[in-house]
Amino acid sequence: MICLSHNGYNNCAEWSQQFLNQCHKVSSFVAFMCWSLWRARNELYFEQKYSSPIDVIWRAEKGFREYVEIEAPVPDEVPSPMARTPVRASTWSPSAPGFFTLSADATFCLAKQRSGIGYVVRDHLGQPLLAVSEVSFFHSSVVGEAFALQSGIAAALSAGYSSLKVESDNLEVINLVNGVQKDCNVYLKFVCSGYTFL
């Protein structure tokens, strides 16, 4: 719930900033809820593991709290004598106005011979414009990830969303599409041909 009050603000800009911060929190929680629902659906479909609605909500809340803790600015700390390896954190950011964001993913269960893909296209405000989840057949998770991207791009282009920012959680597929990785099977090269991540 977004609660805004005009009390304590010197100008409209401060009030607007609070509003935008609240909207960011709400949209972030909605993203975690969608992810939790997607996981619960896959666990039920592929593993026959049932999650109650309370479990799904709890998982989303837990993930959201962890995200907020990571995203929160860290106070100045006393430097540790041990060198730290920087960790690259990835956070979602909206596309520029006039562009659309395509997020794609795949799920694969070799033991049960089941697999599926999903993708969502959002506008520059983060509003979903197109979302698909479907059973699909492929022989490895990386091929599934590439197929999810290919299907998502084709659906987005068919719907008229031609200026795309494409997201995938599979570095192998991203490197293949960008030409960084050359050694892979012919089918995977075919699936990824013609697309470039900017």
TrEMBL record:
Residues 105-185 form the RNase H type-1 domain. This is RNase H type-1 domain-containing protein. Gene3D superfamilies: Ribonuclease H-like superfamily/Ribonuclease H. Pfam families: RVT_3. GO terms for molecular function: nucleic acid binding; RNA-DNA hybrid ribonuclease activity.
